[in-house]
Amino acid sequence: MTYLDEGARRPARRTILGGALAVPVALTIGETSARAAEPAAGTPAGGPAAPPAADERWAALRDKLSGITGEWTDQAYSGSISTSMPNTALLGNGDVGVTSGGTVGVKTFYVSKGDFWAGNPGPRPLPIGGITLKSTVQPASTDLALGSTATASSVDGGLTPDRAVNGQWASGYEGWVSDLGKPQWIALDLGSVKTIARYVIRNDVAARPGNEDHTTKDLQFQVSSDGSAWTDVEAVTGNTDAIIDRDLAAPLTTRYVRLYITEPTQNTTPDSIQNPRARIGQFELYATPKSAGGGGNPAPDPFHETEHILDARITTSVVMNGTPLTLETWLAADENTLVTTVTSNGIGPVELVVQTWGGATTAGSTHPATAGVSAGTAWAQRTTAAGKNWVSTAALATRVLGATSAQTPTASGATASTVFTLAPGATATLVTCVAGGGQNPAGVQQAAVAAVGTQTAAGLTPLRTRTVAWWKNYWLASNVELGRPVLEKYYYAAQYFIGSASRPGKVAPALYGIWTTTDQAQFSGDFHMNYNAMGPFYGVYSSNRPELALPLYDVILDYVPEARRRAREDLNRVKPDYVSQRFPSGGMPDGVLFPVGIGPYGSTTDDNYWQQVADSLFAASQFCAYWEYTRDVTFLREKAYPYLKLVAVFFDNWLEWDAPAQQYAMWSGPHEGTWGKNSTPDLGMLKQTLSTLIEASHVLHTDATERRAWQDMLDRLPAQPTTVYQGATVYSLVEPGSMQGSDTRDIHPGDNTVNLEFIHPAEVLGINSPAADRAIAVHTVDVMNSWGQINSFPKVFTQAARVGYPAASLIQHFESTITQMIAANLRIADGYHGIEKSGACEAVHSMLVQSFDGVMVLFPVWPADQDASFDRLLLPGAFETSAALSAGTVDYVQVTAKAGGTLRVRNPWPDGQRLEVTDGDGHAFGYVVKDGVITVRTQPGRTYRFRPAAAR
């Protein structure tokens, strides 16, 4: 680690493969002693000499972002209701999350809140409810089964038969599910004799892709005159369709109808064979045959929906009761207000109803919801279950502004409804305010009602102006120009999602951001500590948006008291046979030990360790990153340094002394459930932690004794382990031959690139490391071939770029993976993960510019024949950097030194070429070029520009 004497001290990230290396103090040259640039005689030939002006940059960026949208032309809303992250249009302001959904002719926005977590029986994020807009008039082709009395042979939990006839079927919905066994049946009492010509069965898989093996295979469609004796009408055999849609041979008249299901699954997988359950999402009946234009699946009305990431809004064209409507929906950036304008493009008035409802679309919830009307305002409220932990309450309140007429709202159960009329060409505005969340709030419903009561049509204009301005400033924080639409589509959408999900002062986004649409989020929707919780933030530092990571540190620090208790009292559970020999008491004096899953407010979700002790280190990597990129001494003193010290205390106790090797050794698990000596991610992140602690103790002028101990520990850590795979050296998961468990391989090709996490996020090996070490890393990337591995997306592309992987090949792999995995709303989807995929923005930055060992390198992994540029990316040392590459030549480099200090840039121009180095006022500034590195001593807040001098 390099310690600079001037101003705020700077890190110099250093290759530490065989223990710590001594690093010489960086060269610092003042203006008077440097070789001064001569005034330029003219503008250099080639590309631009400086970054574009702010207005010019915004105009180009605005045009680019306008073309990066999510687009839908059907009303299936696939993936809107999800146990992971939704695939439909999303809005967010770091606190409230809004997910677009609905059905044909029905528009719904599901509303969640980042701090609305159930504490009981275990921590889990929950949806609050939603806002639904639809016509008050049902289509003429009415489903005769809708609302009928449904009974069934058996029921699995809360998935009762009435759920198959409630009309709520949509993407992600579960209807009736039986208990195990066959045959099973669901019967309907229509209330009176009806004529039926067609029946539709929407199997579970139609709403929940991935459950194809549980699609109904064989059944009998039956009728009865008394509900007891049944007559077969038609058999369905060998079905594999998600939706069974049949016209009867002849219309029939009956009151009672039954599906008698003899084969409820496809019998194609062990699960479908051993655990047969009937799964019917919706059972529908119609009086008109499909062949004669019967209902149930009408010809789609003109529909189009667009997710606009430029200014965070959703536009929708939809038909309700024959009237074409245009909707525009946005969420305020600085308050919890959701706005939808509804404009009629019809020729006559249309009567609509907006429903404000609480609860979840999934059955079996133990968290109650209520609705009501207060001060003429419709509201709905949801409260989490009581228990030993906190109770949370959140509420929605809605008003209709500008309608031709709006009736007094009414409430029933958990839904409050407001009916209003919209004249041709008129616009009404639906305003919903969201309140509550957190631990044990009071007066939540009243707060929501009071907030929406202050909203006026005139007041919404400045609110929208502030929101548009917020997003403009967000986009201008930094931007890239790649000339590659696939990469740019991923990149800017990923920035949109993390910017929507995380804001300072709010609860950090967990696995699926802030978009929760069910009560059953996978993995408790928590903060997974073995990288998933940190992954979304990998790219925020270099994108010049480090403040987005601040909520993460609060979640980690809130857990520290419990993590310290676990280090003292619960250590034995990590691996009893190992711990009991080394720590007979079952713990150590101090330190921090995290389980794999935590929630907010110091809570625990997944109380397992999986034989890993690196969870504290993954968190430490992000504390280190924030300090390294921002040089924020207050953050270092108050947050990072105390946490990193506790991590060091843990590993000071945990490390063993390997006497023959005269170095420390570490036993732990690189993958969940594995165990081996000198796990490479653990070693890498511990080196990063100790290096930052040593530097921080100098900056803060404290802990000289501890500093010497940390340095000794760092000096005696082993090199990153390597092994030989198919005749060549690669980076290993652990020291070769030490892996224990069911899979004892030293490297897992095709799996998560855990063995490369010492490169990123640990920053032990980088672009300025010895070529031989980087060559091993490049070969390891090839051997792993993990480009499409679902956990690797936020890591592998960055890891490859950091060691100089061939640019064209890296881009090809990156774009191919994006194309394969991108969802309709432009997120990278894999069925299990969510917001973490934003972390691969760091790979894009690393292809354009990197800083390692205190030396900045421009366009290190970018094809020389492809023009590219970037503006205001943040580099370690708090150097805000812009540069452009055109026709294979770097046109300029501009750096604003936010914290001052020595700036070193690898010279991107030929040796001997005269350079022009100027400050922000255009004055020549001193510099030195030595060993191919340009060195300038900067002052805090000043800007410096480098470019080739004009020919004379």
Question: Would you give an account of this structure?
Answer:
The protein has 952 residues and is of the alpha+beta class. It folds into three domains: 65-139 and 300-476, putative glycoside hydrolase family protein from bacillus halodurans (Beta-galactosidase, Chain A, domain 5); 149-292, Galactose-binding domain-like (Jelly Rolls, Sandwich); 479-858, Glycosyltransferase, CATH 1.50.10. 22% of the residues lie in helices and 29% in strands. It is built from 16 helices and 43 strands. The strands form ten sheets. The protein has a nine-stranded antiparallel beta sheet, with helices on one face. Strands 2, 3, 4, 5, 17, 21, 22 and 23 form an eight-stranded antiparallel beta sheet that branches. Strands 6, 7, 8, 9, 10, 11 and 12 form a seven-stranded antiparallel beta sheet that branches. A hairpin with a 4-residue loop joins strand 13 (304-308) and strand 14. Helix 10 packs across helix 11 (680-699). The longest helix is centred in the C-terminal third of the chain and has 22 residues, at 633-654. It is globular. Residues 1-45 and 295-300 have low confidence and may be disordered. This is Discoidin domain-containing protein. Residues 132-288 form the F5/8 type C domain. It comes from Actinacidiphila acididurans.
Strand content: 25-35%
- The oligomeric state is single chain
Largest beta sheet: what is the strand line-up?
A: 1-13-14-15-16-24-20-19-18
Q: Note the gap between the termini.
A: 42 Å
Protein name: Discoidin domain-containing protein
InterPro entries: 6-hairpin_glycosidase_sf, 6hp_glycosidase-like_sf, FA58C, Galactose-bd-like_sf, GH95_cat, Glyco_hydro_b
Domain F5/8 type C: 132-288
Pfam families: F5_F8_type_C, Glyco_hydro_95_cat
